[in-house]
Amino acid sequence: MPPRVVLGVGAGIAAYKCCELLRLLTESGFRVRVVPTPDALRFVGEATWAALSGEPVTTDAWTDAWQVPHVRIGQSADLVVVAPATADLLARAAAGMADDLLTSTLLTATCPVLFAPAMHTEMWQHPATRANVSVLRSRGTVVLEPAAGRLTGADSGPGRLPEPEEIFAVAVRLLAGAPRDLAGRRVLISAGGTREEIDPVRFIGNWSTGTQGYALARAAVARGAEATVVAANVALPDPGGAKVLRVVSACEMRDAVLDAAAGADAVVMAAAVADYRPEARSAAKIKKAGQPPEPLRLTENPDILAELAALRHQQRGRQQRAHPEPGHPQVLVGFAAETDTSADAARAKLARKGCDLLVVNPVGGGLGFGTPDNEAAVYAADGTVTPVPRGPKEVLADAVWDLVAARLS
Ligand code: C5P
Predict the structure, then answer these.
(1) Residues that are catalytic
(2) Nearest CA to ligand 1 atom 6
(3) Could you tell me the pTM of the whole model?
(4) What letters, b where the CB count within 10 A reaches 16 and e where it falls short, cover 44-66?
């Protein structure tokens, strides 16, 4: 039996993009039943959904009542995907209403549920919507962060439907049984490589592409987290369902990470951060002057991970004085791409950084920057070491979240 997917469609202009999502689902062999809200049919008509899915399309519980559709569709689903999820639909789902076939289906579904919201920025940022999203996430429902960009009119901002391919990728993970052990958690990931400007055309940089950081973000989203990525110079498509903040230099990354880390349950520093930057940036392009240039004078960048660990230490002290039994502390994870992967060097770096987990991965030999595969040993502050054999970066991402989730539970 092919997996049964319910595609709930809300009344938003982005409904037209969900025809593509439906295509991706049916072409993967899933049996898809489309359940639009009554107003969603104003954007894309019943005939389109019926023809593309090969299934009947109804919006209320009265059509074919003998089949008890308001209960049966949800009960027999392996996954419910709601896209676009409007502010109204999120509100009705959070309140547990059952005033049309889709919300009834959501109340009877015991399978994973994925919401892909799309709405205007003001609606997404309204405290009522924020609260509804929190409620849904705390129940284990996966709610993607909308993408930022052009909205229906001339305005732009957060509120765009994530790309159909990105929604599809999360749907496939959920159907494959991805754990939702980060549901209700906020996680922060740094990705890519910082650039330190020398002059308007040159910089000191590194080879990091952000592939591992984006794999971590995608995995976190599928496991139910509210994920924020601080991305330094990443040219890859945004990880759907995560909020992406762009930076260039280590100092910019520090400010963005420290700001977003407040209230995060876990921070994973997968970015390659430059240890040094030029002491001064030349405002004009440095020209060849017929003699060797002045040596570049460098100054040390802040160590963001070590700073996060120091902040946590201070906060823990304050919390312990106020509440002798505080909640779990923030979990901190560092990455170390090394040519020396000895256990002694790894343990020394783990202690120096003050984080909980250090993912040590060798560079060279087809592994490391820009490659699809990685291999690592994850050193934990409690003395354990978890080897992750060579494989796709997605596998290492899930191995990291397994260890993080265990520390959060
Ligand atoms: O010391 P090293 O650069 O090898 O440490 C790697 C880890 O520390 C990574 O997680 C990286 O993101 C983080 N880091 C940092 N700030 C720096 C340098 C590295 O947070 N200035």
Answers:
(1) 206
(2) 336
(3) 0.93
(4) beeebbeebbebebbbebeeeee
- Ligand 1 pocket by Cβ (under 6 Å): 190, 250, 269, 271, 273, 275, 301, 303-305, 334-336
Structure tokens at 288: 């060849």
Please count the structural domains in the chain.
Answer: 2
Judge whether residue 327 has pLDDT over 80. Answer: no
Domain containing residue 17: CATH number = 3.40.50.1950
367 and 394 both lie in a single domain: yes
pLDDT tens for each residue of 271-311 = 999 999 999 999 999 988 777 778 899 999 999 999 999 99
Residue 145: inside a domain: yes
Distance of CA 1 to the CA centre of its chain: 31
Residues of the domain holding 92: 4-175
Residue located via tokens 């100092």: 251
Q: In terms of domains, do 14 and 39 share one?
A: yes
E-state strands within 73-193: 79-85, 113-117, 142-143, 147-150, 156-160, 186-192
- Residue 409 half-sphere exposure toward CB, CA atoms < 13 A: 10
Q: How far does CA 112 lie from the centroid of its chain? A: 17
What pLDDT digit, counting tens, does each position of 128-187 carry? Answer: 999 999 999 999 999 999 999 888 878 889 999 999 999 999 999 999 999 999 999 999
CA distances from 143 to 68, 118, 226, 370 (A): 28, 11, 8, 29
What is the atom index within ligand 1 of the atom nearest the CA of 338?
A: 4
pLDDT at 328 over 80: no
265 and 338 fall within a common domain: yes
Whether residue 225 is found in the same domain as residue 357: yes
Q: Which of 173, 16, 9 is nearest to 85 (CA)?
A: 9
